[in-house]
Amino acid sequence: MSTVDTAKLGGGAPDRPPPIATVGVIGWLRTNLFGSVVDSILTIVSMVIIYYAFSALLDWAVFNAIWEAENRRECLNINKETGTSGACWAGVIIWFNAIIYGRYPYEEQWRINFAFIVLVLWLAPMWMPRVKEKLVYGLSAVVFYPFLGAALFAGGERGLFLQIMMSAAIVFFVYNCVNALVGLLSGNDLPDTLREKLGIQGKSDKAQRNILLAIAAVAFAVVFALTFTWTVPNVTWTKWGGLFLTLVISGIGITAALPGGIVLALGRRSQLPVIRVISVTFIEVFRSVPLITILFMATTMFPLFLPEGFTLNKLLQVIVAVCLFNACYMAEVVRAGLQAIPKGQYEAADAMGLGYWKMMGLVIMPQALKYMIPNIVGNFIGLLKDTTLVSIIGLFDVLNIIQSAISRDVPWRGLHKEPLFVGALIFFIICFAMSKYSQHLERKLSTDHR
User: Fold this and answer.
1) Is the pLDDT of residue 361 over 90?
2) Does pLDDT of 401 surpass 60?
3) Is the Cα torsion angle 120, 125, 129, 135 positive or negative in sign?
């Protein structure tokens, strides 16, 4: 019986097309691409368009491209001699370090690379099935990693608070790595392994907890003592730029937008009039003003309200503005998810005797966020792309670095297409990866309800 017949008898939607392994390549092509005359015509026309588009792009970007030249004039001469119009990647290769790191000193760029590697290792266990306590990895990264990153990126002398938080970040990072290794090898977590090795399983839960806390305190004291005198040269925020600055602003914005949006959404639905009015006013004010206006207000008007002698650097002001702006948009996304939850879920949670916060944390919010995955990731992608607006107020993000190189590097002046193409490709890769991961989450959590 065909798929259509089955759907008619069952009264539901037709099933997905069978995989290639089931019907073979010829059968899959016939079913999905050449099922009818119209399908065959559309397939052939699409393939012709794709062929000509990609062949022209490959000719320009790869086959006829120029990879070595001293200046743009030399690239033009080579294209004239060969009778082609290939891309001149020689200038982009010269600018590539600035596109990635901005004006960050070359000899200190290892700090950015090292911080990125630490973040990858920190979060990698969240995608390992045998590793437990995945919530600890995510929360510890959100709470502690920014302080470790700030100590590496900015350098210079550290205050006591930053030293404490950096030491705690190192302890959590080591704990997460060891815990992931233990989980991969044995399937257990590190606390259970320590209890077994120390032979304290027979003690009370309080005694076991105190012993583990003592071990953590000793580890923190050792790290604090070892890193107390460790410093790296100071790099002012004015030298931050390129893709590095874009990821810093968007990363902090994404990290703060979701929890901020949840708080504002719950405040907007609150039964307390004061909290509801404050939340609604805050959300509507930020959603009614363009981001560029918020950025100008943050860098020009906000310092006027600070106490005399108290100053904030422009980068911190921009990060705060981006976080608040996107938290307000995220609040409406979360509120839409909360409204999609049937009333019966609230009543069931009340019947179980759950309080407000347990009901929201254990029953309502997980379902609401699951429904809103496409919109949440869409807002994150928009946040990443909106960070290019900081170029208007003088921060050298990817776009501003490219514009500066195009207009100020005299030997390569006039080279527009290639660097802008690289910038667009960088954004496409990051946004496409975020989109594919959101689709993976949808399939994993079965949000499509098929």
Assistant:
1) no
2) yes
3) negative
CA–CA separation, 356 and 365 (whole Å) = 11
Are the C-beta atoms of residues 381 and 373 closer than 8 Å to each other?
no
392-to-221, 293, 380 alpha-carbon distances in Å: 45, 11, 21
Give me the residue spans of the domains in the chain: 14-62, 105-234, 244-415+424-450
* Residue among 154, 119, 165, 153 at smallest CA distance from 138: 119
Nearest Cα neighbor of 383 from 276, 224, 260 is: 260
What's the half-sphere exposure (Cβ side, CA atoms, 13 Å) at 130?
11
Q: Length of the chain, please? A: 450
CATH 1.10.3720.10 is right for the domain spanning 244-415+424-450: yes
Burial of 295 (0-12, 13-18, 19+ CB in 10 A): buried
Compare 112 and 39 and report the one with higher pLDDT: 112
Distances from the Cα of 37 to the Cαs of 32, 41, 44, 152, 354, in angstroms?
A: 12, 6, 11, 62, 59
Q: Is 222 helix (H, G, I), strand (E, B) or coil?
A: helix
pLDDT in tens, 104-141: 999 999 999 999 999 999 988 888 887 877 888 888 89
* Rounded Cα distance, 108 and 102, in Å: 12
